[in-house]
Specification:
Helix 2 links the parallel strand 1 and strand 2. This protein has six helices and three strands; from the N terminus they run αβαββαααα. It has one domain. The protein is mainly α and about 160 residues long. The termini are far apart.
């Protein structure tokens, strides 16, 4: 099945996403695997608003799971940065998520990811540092993803 961007409505109707992100460990320092705020936030957005059954794989590009959809990487298919938007914003727009709390989170993620201070939001920097610290403690990628998604869920409820 082709899971290209033109099938976003079909994805909402029950086709489970198997998302993939390429990790290149040599780009990260002292054991940090690359499970950062932007990736946790995108995974949270996908599971919370797009596909609750989505599964995530973080692996080298030569081990891409079959029928996966790339995200937060430079790849012509999948979901990533577009123009001035970070991956989180791309997903928010592609799936027409109009929740006001998600909009605030998208600004936080944008500023932390692109460091352009477009929205003047600093909250994401602290969350990202927490994730990096956990990563340096040898916590597994899956546990980092789970913890990061819990942090984003907390941030979502803090906006109420």
């Amino acid at each position: 099945m082709d899971l290209s961007l033109s099938h976003s409505d079909e994805l909402r109707q029950g086709f489970s996403l198997h998302l993939f992100h390429h990790l290149a460990p040599m780009h990260f320092d002292r054991g940090f695997t690359g499970i950062e705020l932007r990736r946790c936030a995108s995974a949270w957005l996908i599971q919370r608003f797009i596909d609750s059954k989505a599964r995530f794989a973080f692996a080298p590009e030569n081990q891409v799971p079959e029928k996966s959809v790339p995200f937060d990487m430079f790849h012509e298919s999948g979901f990533g940065h577009r123009g001035e938007d970070c991956t989180f914003e791309t997903l928010q727009k592609e799936f027409r998520i109009r929740d006001r709390r998600v909009k605030v989170i998208s600004e936080i993620i944008h500023d932390a990811d692109l460091a352009d201070e477009k929205f003047g939001r600093k909250e994401g920097y602290g969350i990202d540092e927490i994730l990096k610290g956990w990563g340096r403690q040898g916590i597994s990628d899956q546990e980092l993803l789970d913890r990061g998604m819990q942090l984003i869920e907390g941030l979502y409820h803090a906006q109420a």
